[in-house]
Amino acid sequence: xxxxxxxxxxxxxxxxxxxxxxxxxxxxxxxxxxxxxxxxxxxxxxxxxxxxxxxxxxxxxxxxxxxxxxxxxxxxxxxxxxxxxxxxxxxxxxxxxxxxxxxxxxxxxxxxxxxxxxxxxxxxxxxxxxxxxxxxxxxxxxxxxxxxxxxxxxxxxxxxxxxxxxxxxxxxxxxxxxxxxxxxxxxxxxxxxxxxxxxxxxxxxxxxxxxxxxxxxxxxxxxxxxxxxxxxxxxxxxxxxxxxxxxxxxxxxxxxxxxxxxxxxxxxxxxxxxxxxxxxxxxxxxxxxxxxxxxxxxxxxxxxxxxxxxxxxxxxxxxxxxxxxxxxxxxxxxx
Length: 335
Description:
disordered C terminus; mainly alpha; two-stranded antiparallel ribbon; about 325 residues; 16 helices; about 65% helix
């Protein structure tokens, strides 16, 4: 059976805070350099996963007139990722996918943007591909068409990015989330408490509350900084702080007394405190933030407002032409 201790997740995808910050900064800087050299950051992808980078121009700034394009900052990229990570959870919830699919999709999304800037691949498209890939690896067989239809998006986009996403993940597709570990800890708590029926019911309530807390943990950087067992314990401790089902400090002492424990009680408490800190200080972008960031991102990707307007005019023109050529009278289009 697969084990986290020998997994690629532990070997390659758990970072120190400093290293993680460096990865995000490096991805941002690569996109900034593209913008300066080429006047756009958009990296095109075909269905085989082949990438086409923007071509360097003599003077990218001249191409844009006197207007100097402004790249997204590292913090603005973080807000953009946070917005679409929440969308991953919304999509998974709408389809009533198990939590393990949500956890896997979020890990895929997080890992992808360690390799790329949001200025190079729009998160809206990557998000859907990550959900689809997570369904496949977790053997929850949902087609790209079903996902696309369910959220009114073109399923061809989902398929187009699949190989690019898998390559960016370095084909490390087995992901360990906190949810199964939480179930194991709660089962262990039953023995620890020598639980009777009423206590078993309380532990079931604790698991339900902790699952909601784990969802919040998964939106932070914690899955890239801590192993899933510690994420699970942190979620349980947060939930237990409200429900008071178990003496958690005593339970942690019981855990570290086991022969295979890697930490002292004080070390483990410090790690859980660090995870809780990330949850408490998690920031989700405001509507105003997103409007500003989206405007900048459109410019970076080469989708200026004038370009968008011309596309809309072309679409309206085609639609009008189609209506005029029809023999059947129809009402005005909706929306």
